[in-house]
Amino acid sequence: MTLILTRSDVLRMITYPEVIGAVRRAHADLAAGEAVLPAPPALRLPGSDAAFLAMAAASRTDGLATVKLLADLPANAERGLPVQRSAILAVSAEDGGCEALLDGGAVTRFRTAAASAVATAALARPDARVLGLVGAGALAFAHAEALAHVMEIEKIVVWSRTPGTSRAFAEATGARVAATAEEAVREADVLCTLTPARDPVVRGAWFPEGLHVNAVGAPPRADHREIDTEGIVRSRVVVDSRATALHESGDVLVPLAEGAITEEHFADELGEVLIGAVPGRTGRAQITLYNSLGVGLQDLAAARLLIDEARRRGLGTEIDLAG
Fold it and tell me: How far apart are CA 96 and CA 31, in angstroms?
């Protein structure tokens, strides 16, 4: 039987502590050779700016192989629809049976913020207290909630290109609205960039010593980036997947094409830090940057949690695809 989980099903079950733990384990499994994560192929139709990514992964630990089909459709903004939409298909790694089909929207939001929390715990200064947010939409709310599980947040400073959005976020969370992106960056101990930017909105010249950055928002396109070249050069960069970074991360591919860095600059993966194969933060003044692309293995880890919990609680809809 195949389990169907709608967005409302997912939201009834999913919690940050569990997803943070699952994402942490998934990245450690990848570094230990217990999981497989190829770079996702990007499908583009002639005459369209739409992109479709098949984000595949397989895990011995979780007993699953999954693929999330992500549709990145910029024209949806004018239609009043989400720019990114997705669904996750999960099959048994043992016998290939179709275990589940899940709506990908809520899963993506939770696992993205969870990955930033994992990276923050591994790379930020232990005494980090100020969270800076560039971008004030749904991902900002998700990150504020997720990072509260791994750092003691005394203050949140937020900036958005849309003032009304940042004011609404501040009213809901008690954050202080910064007048400029630079102000939010300079005040932060941990900075999350959460904008679908094509051109940099954050400058490395603004980075204070000891900052940790989660670069999250740019879509999976090689010419889109939130951080300028100086920011990448000044930072010790850790990626979720080297193969994926080389395939779709404008934050590293643009500086690489400019000759400002080499591939060695982003050779370290998050899972390698987690298992101690490479060091985490090496000094109080060091600037660290987690280049968050969002990978299929994170979706797989969250899917495993949700499938097990749904069957325990009798949630979702079971159908016989072979019937």
Answer: 24
